[in-house]
Every structure is written in C-alpha cells, then in structure tokens.
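Q: Give me a backbone?
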Amino acid sequence: MGIKMRLSDCHNFADFRRLAKKRLPGPIFHYIDGAADDEVTYRRNTEAYETVDLVPNVLNGVDAVDMSVEVMGQKLDMPLYCAPTALQRLFHHDGERAVGRAATKFGTMFGVSSLATVTVEEIAELAPGPKMFQFYFHKDRGLNDALLERARAAKFNVMALTVDTITGGNRERDLRTGFTSPPKLNLQSAWSFATHPAWAWNFFTKEKFDMPHLSGHVDQGTNVAVSVGEYFSSMLDPTMSWKDAEKLCAQWNGEFALKGIMSVEDAKRAVDIGCTGIMVSNHGGRQLDGSRAPFDQLAEICDAVGDRIDVICEGGIQRGTHVLKALSVGAKAVSGGRLYLYALAAAGQPGVERALGNLRTEIERDMRLMGVKHVSELGRDNLRYR
C-alpha cells in the first residue's frame, strides 16, 4: 500500500492537484482540471512564464519586504487574489465559505461568481475584506438586474463583467466524463461517487446543492442538470456588446472591470467606456484553445493602457516567481482559480489557507532574493527573455 497523502505533504501547486485528484470523483476533478479542445492554451498559460528569466540585484539590505498593492481601489496585503470560480460546493461542502474566510485571513480579495453556491449576503457577513462580484450577462434582463442589485446591497467593492463566454468552450473532458451541474447519478458517476465515499457523504447529506443567485430565474444548473458549456451557450446573451458593457459600468457606478481582455484594442475600449480594471485572461484555457496566454499578451497591453487602468494578469500562476514576473512586466496584481480550487478540494479552508500561505511565503522569499523591498521596485529591467 502507498503512503497516504496529507495536507501537510502539499508544498506546491502540483501537490494540491495530486491530493484533489485523490479526494474528488473523476468527473468533478476533471471539471477543474480540464480545458478546451487539445488544452494547448491551458498548458501555455503556465509555460509562458518559463520563457523569461529574473535578474536579481544583491547587497540591497532586504531586511523586510512589503508586498502590498492597491488594485481598483482595494488595498491588498499581497499582489495575488482569488479569482471568481463557479460551483465551489461541488469541490468541498464548505465551498465559497472556505475560500472567503481564507482570503480574508490573508488580507486579499475574494472573487465571487454569478454561479456561486453561497449567497453574496452570507459571503459579505463571513468575509469582510475586499470582494469582487463576477457578472455573467444573461438573456434574462431581470436576472441581470437582480444580480447587480444584490451585489450592490451586499456592498461588494468591485464588479467584473466576464466577456469571453459568448458561447461555451469545447471542454472534451466534461463530454467524456458526463460532468453536469448538479451531478447526474448514473452507472458511471455512481461508481465514481462510491469510490470517493467522503465526498459523496458530504455532498448528499449536507445542504442541498444550489446556485442561489439564479433561483427564481433559471432552473438550469440547479434543478436541471447541464454542462457548464451548455449553460453558457443557452443562458448567456450572445448579443452582448460594448454598449451593454458601458451601460452596466454606468449602472454599477463604481470600480468596474472587464474579465477576459486579450487584445490591445479591447483594452483601450475598456478605458474608453469607464472601466477601472481589466483581467488579461483566457478563462483558464477553457474557452478558445489556440489563443494567446495572458502573460504573453501582458507587455503590449500594459504599454498601451497601464497608466490609465489597473491591469491584472489572470491564469497559469503556480509559483511566486510567476507573480514577480507578471508584476515586473507591469501588472498591478495577479489572480487565479485553480491555484486555490485544488487546495479547496483537497482540504477545505485549511487547504486554501495553506495554498495562499505557500504562495505568500514564496513571494516574500523571491522578493528578498531579487533584492527588492517593495513590489513597486520590480520592472522590466530585471527581466530577460530567452
């Protein structure tokens, strides 16, 4: 028999992934782990960071480091935050509650999805730190208005409109495993649930799975099982335009970002319509395979708009050095989903805290090794491209 893996054995991204794979039924794990088509873009999101090297300076007397940043008006204790992700109570029964508490403990921002499994009202109570609401633009305009007003009433600090889900990506792993939300019980899934009894016990005996922000508006995803790709293609509005984004930005009348910007032209338009932030992101490689990696696009976008809007590099982050490379290019901060989702699946709130703690320790150590006391001292002069 092999040695049983524990949370204390998780020292990096790959370790959390390995433990999550042991804890989750196959369809659930592959929903987190998978991406679109051949997953080329997904792999490139991380590989892109390996094409540039850090050049450290020494003898700078780095006795203490300050990694705090201000992003879209929010003061964060570290230059990394938890990007919004859907369906978190599928991965661990505490779901967003665990991630929200962990993000608050580390003084960073917590992104909450329209497809969250805990209400914004409850999250506002348990996670008093900076919070972002991620907005999916639905065909149902009443639902859109309700989402915005609930986030406003819960005093969320930032609104982020996702703009790269005009239709669902081709997530072939989900097609093969039959993943849906909520999970369907059939011969294939029953075996997977049976071989992961701890997950099954928590899922079937604790509070009923729900996406409460959609309740009363749509049944898909809560009462009617669908894949996420089907949800995007059938429920989201494919006619969404720059006029819609501008109207939503004005309606929110606060810190507003577009999530999924990949071109300089779109970054400039985001500035023009009044956005205060953009997430350079390809949805974790889950939408358009063969598209560019965020880090590959970061320099030209920062050059074009970095002095007028906060640029966040989202996707592929697995190490503290990745964070420093993105900040050196010009990003104000970085964010990611899988970097905490594997940890959530592996061990709930203690897992997320360990993942964030590992990354914070890496960032601090790497700043010392780079000879910088504050992240603002990082720049392109300390990078060399291969």
